[in-house]
Design the sequence.
């Protein structure tokens, strides 16, 4: 993540992501009949680069699309997946809707709080994990309780499996590969791995 | 009983994200057939004749919807609603992740039929894998000449733009989706004008659900008569039921519309979990009123479910057992809808928040006797009083459990213990 932060740490002058990715930005805007439609894509790009959307990102986006700064921030704040404050490298979002809640989601949250040593909404001191709960159903009800880490899925997350996932990420596992390998996200994977209760 | 899989054929057996595997089971044949031998009007007519009803929840016939576009020379747009967020629903996500070319082919055929200038997929922000899969599939299709300029050597050209949402349930509402796609807050708009007349950028626009569009290639390839031979007379075709809750085998199951609730739960989903007894079912996501064990022989099609007092909705079938407290479940939904209300309309913004406060009070044993009447009165104050239907749908489950499980609410108010057992936790997989 955070190419800019890494550059700063190396003592190199930080080149803003929007200069480095100028071609991607032009391409994104060109996909739409009207440039304003690229606003959400640019906010995603900022988050991809920095891990969150910083005030200077919104300054740039407003200027690039010819929108007011207030309009950009008002749009950004409407959507819950944009982080407007720094977050951990891995943002763990536990599904807090009905099916996951009924099928172990609540105790999963308590377990993760204990395991990570943080409360919901907080980031571990090493900056690795932020723990969140969403009220939105994440569309994984057959894999309840489910969670997402940086929008990658993990189904049927028992406390033991949660520990396994956290440990693997601490050891530097690739998130996408981890989700594919142990996320139990393929159709039928959940009950083939053992029916619950 | 075994039923033929149509939209889900090959999923779990073949890697359909690879275009050659999709082609090997007949993929892109419908596009070829339409572009070489059918006019746009003929494709439209076939879909209309098939009575393909919208799979996103409303059940409105797609062919009729397409017919609402005025023929006035303005550019037309097609938007695929892939913002699947209705609690209890997860079939679009599977189609996107495991059969992306079917969706692309369906969009191309629909775009051809309505003569769209450009197509968009409004993809739920949480579907990051789905985004990767779709972007890759689009490039595969382009390399084979199925997408881009002069598709298959014809005069038909089409681009599909994938637009990522960022976490807002309301963007699944079609005008909220359009506001978001235009680059802003996903706030719904007053209808009329409907999107068909003034949609994306004010232009004529069709918004169709993922599963709806995935049916189009089969209707074009095999014909409307074939489609009409599946399901019921008024609800033809298959439906992917997303089954979750206290059953042995939760998952997505593609079945003919009109299959009974009993067959779905007892045969297809393996029956209730050991020790679980059926208490209630929501047949169509969070917005659907509950069905009861007495409804087990109800055919699951649009009209039958409506006649029984609920809605088929998204066919997100949530199965509850005796351990589930209805007050607590209503509170979950109330918190959800309160968070997801866009805030434009007072009855919704204030109403959803107050619903949650009253239910939280009840859940914590501090309910007041008058609370039940207040909650019942929301039927008039929160229904039909707002721009979109979020407000109306936020209380449909609540109203149905107030009717069928009134004793649970009364017990909470009288300070007695919750009548439900505590839900059991899942074991290690």
Sequence:
């Amino acid at each position: 993540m955070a190419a800019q932060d890494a550059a700063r740490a190396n003592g190199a002058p930080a080149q803003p992501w929007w200069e480095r990715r100028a071609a991607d930005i032009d391409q994104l805007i060109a996909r739409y009949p009207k440039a304003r439609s690229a606003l959400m894509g640019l906010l995603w790009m900022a988050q991809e680069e920095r891990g969150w959307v910083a005030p200077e990102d919104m300054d740039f986006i407003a200027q690039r699309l010819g929108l007011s700064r207030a309009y950009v921030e008002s749009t950004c704040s409407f959507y819950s997946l944009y982080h407007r404050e720094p977050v951990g490298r891995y943002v763990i979002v536990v599904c807090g809707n009905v099916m996951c809640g009924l099928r172990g989601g609540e105790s999963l949250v308590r377990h993760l709080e204990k395991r990570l040593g943080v409360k919901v909404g907080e980031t571990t001191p090493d900056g690795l994990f932020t723990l969140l709960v969403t009220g939105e159903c994440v569309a994984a009800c057959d894999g309840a309780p489910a969670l997402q880490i940086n929008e990658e899925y993990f189904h049927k997350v028992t406390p033991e499996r949660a520990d396994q996932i956290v440990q693997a990420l601490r050891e530097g596992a690739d998130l996408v590969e981890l989700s594919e390998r142990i996320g139990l996200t393929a159709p039928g994977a959940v009950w083939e791995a053992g029916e619950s209760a | 009983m075994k039923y033929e899989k149509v939209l889900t054929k090959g999923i779990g057996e073949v890697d359909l994200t690879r275009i050659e595997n999709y082609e090997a089971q007949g993929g892109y044949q419908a596009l070829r057939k339409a572009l070489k031998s059918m006019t746009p009007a003929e494709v439209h007519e076939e879909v209309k004749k098939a009575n393909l009803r919208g799979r996103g929840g409303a059940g409105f016939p797609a062919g009729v919807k397409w017919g609402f576009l005025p023929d006035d020379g303005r550019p037309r747009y097609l938007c695929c609603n892939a913002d699947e967020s209705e609690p209890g629903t997860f079939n679009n996500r599977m189609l996107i992740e495991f059969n992306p070319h079917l969706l692309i082919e369906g969009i191309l055929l629909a775009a051809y039929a309505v003569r769209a200038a450009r197509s968009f997929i409004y993809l739920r922000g949480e579907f990051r894998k789905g985004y990767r899969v779709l972007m890759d599939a689009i490039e595969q299709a382009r390399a084979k000449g199925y997408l881009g300029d002069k598709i298959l050597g014809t005069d038909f050209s089409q681009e599909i733009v994938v637009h990522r949402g960022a976490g807002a349930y309301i963007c699944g509402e079609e005008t909220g989706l359009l506001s978001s796609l235009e680059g802003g807050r996903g706030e719904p708009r007053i209808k009329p004008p409907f999107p068909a007349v003034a949609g994306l950028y004010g232009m004529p626009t069709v918004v169709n659900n993922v599963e709806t569009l995935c049916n189009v290639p089969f209707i074009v390839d095999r014909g409307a008569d074939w489609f009409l031979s599946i399901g019921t007379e008024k609800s033809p075709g298959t439906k992917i039921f997303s089954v979750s809750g206290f059953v042995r085998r939760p998952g997505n199951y593609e079945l003919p519309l009109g299959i009974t609730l009993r067959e779905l739960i007892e045969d297809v989903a393996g029956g209730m979990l050991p020790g679980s007894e059926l208490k209630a079912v929501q047949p169509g996501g969070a917005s659907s009123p509950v069905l009861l064990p007495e409804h087990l022989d109800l055919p699951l099609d649009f009209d039958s479910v409506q006649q029984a007092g609920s809605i088929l909705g998204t066919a997100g079938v949530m199965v509850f057992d005796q351990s589930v407290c209805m007050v607590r479940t209503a509170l979950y939904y109330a918190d959800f809808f309160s968070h997801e209300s866009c805030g434009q309309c007072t009855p919704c913004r204030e109403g959803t928040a107050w619903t949650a406060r009253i239910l939280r009070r009840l859940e914590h044993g501090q309910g007041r006797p008058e609370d039940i009447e207040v909650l019942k009165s929301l039927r008039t104050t929160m229904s039909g009083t707002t721009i979109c239907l979020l407000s109306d749908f936020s209380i449909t489950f609540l109203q149905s459990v107030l009717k069928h499980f009134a004793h649970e609410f009364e017990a909470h108010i009288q300070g007695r213990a919750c009548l439900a057992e505590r839900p059991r936790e899942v074991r290690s997989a």
